[in-house]
Amino acid sequence: MSLSIIVLAAGKGSRMASSKPKVLHEVGNYPMLFHILDTVSSFKNSFVNIVISHSFLDYKDLIISKYNKVTFSIQSQQKGTADAVKSSLTNIKKNPTDYTIVLCGDTPLISKKTIEKSLNKLVKNNLDLCVISMKPENKKNSYGKLKFKENKLIGIIEQSEIKKQDHKDICNSGIMIFKTKRLIENLKLVNNNNRKKEYFLTDLVDIFYKQNFSIDHYVCNFNETLGVNNLIDLSRVNNEFQKIKRRSFLSKGVIMEAPDTVYFSYDTKIAKNVIIQPNVYFGPEVEIKDNVVLRSFSYLDNVKVSQNVLIGPYARIRDGVNIKKNSKIGNFVEIKKSNVDENVKISHLSYIGDSTINSFSNVGAGAITCNYDGKRKNKTIIGKNCFIGSNTSLVAPLKIKNGSIIGAGTVVNKDVPNETVVYRKSELIKKDKKK
After folding, report:
1. Most buried of 53, 100, 383, 411, CB within 10 angstroms?
2. Quick check: is 348 catalytic?
3. Which domains are present in the chain?
4. Which pLDDT tens digit goes with each residue over 164-201?
5. What is the pTM of this model?
């Protein structure tokens, strides 16, 4: 079975009040379009075509850098969904397939499972068309309504075309699956004899019915079909996405004391027996191993945390940090682009940037790495079993070797040898060797 997958992404999105294309607005720190492409790209023997507008051309390279096998079609004027699909036919005909799935680029929550079930229904029942439908929570809505005759689907009427109150509660999700041959042959029959003077893809249901083609629908969960027309919609979709992530993590053994206050990104990875206190934020590329405790108001972004680590409260860890097992990152500590080895303690009020801290070292309150000299970022390397006293300033580039002690309030701007005590403006004093 071969698939053509058409993703409609040419809408202007003017109601988003943003210069960014609507489908590139993010859900869980990930563009809506990428959610859709990740879902459909997992189908075997499939061909993906994205319908875009001229204004989207500047973003093509961004898409291709991540999805190098997709093709693009341009809808020159936004004249409706059927016109958008028509613009993709040249590419579809170059890659003949058995079936075609049409999706909207602003419905990021649709699951692969729902698409598979709809496709299986079409194939099993030898349908020419299967509409993915849903039942909205509010019967007063702007969705197109499915029309039935003797329990058979005969058409879809767009909300703008309804002349009187329609009491049916089954609505169009915007996702349709066709036999590719039927779609190509009948798309030209769609006209724009409607109030908006647009070519509606939904008119194909009526066209198929009048030709005695086999059509039906598959009812899915309404929340999967939530679309985005404005920032209010985007907020709602983000909220639903967070609910899905929270349920998933809770079911896998992640402990959350106040789940509604925790924010996850699309790619957050968390192992078992992790405790997350209220108001923790996970940015992209965060991976947490077993038995980690994340205390309240901590912010993590591009971080890998190994087993048995304690973080927070009020910690900010970002931009490529790797924390090894049994370490402690305390309150009001910021770490950026650094490696923290096993059994390291940075308990409070410190800034660590562009650094490596080796095992069993302790960084005191108020200690900072001065990594920026006004032109470039420089590195600080702290060896094993070092003690960095409170309110110290480590001026990079700098190497502090194993077993050394930096006294409180010291400014260090010279490399420190093994087992050395440093105090009073970088004066070096050798430690007494143990007898």
Report:
1. 100
2. yes
3. 3-225 (3.90.550.10), 242-430 (2.160.10.10)
4. 554 468 999 999 999 999 999 999 999 998 888 999 99
5. 0.90
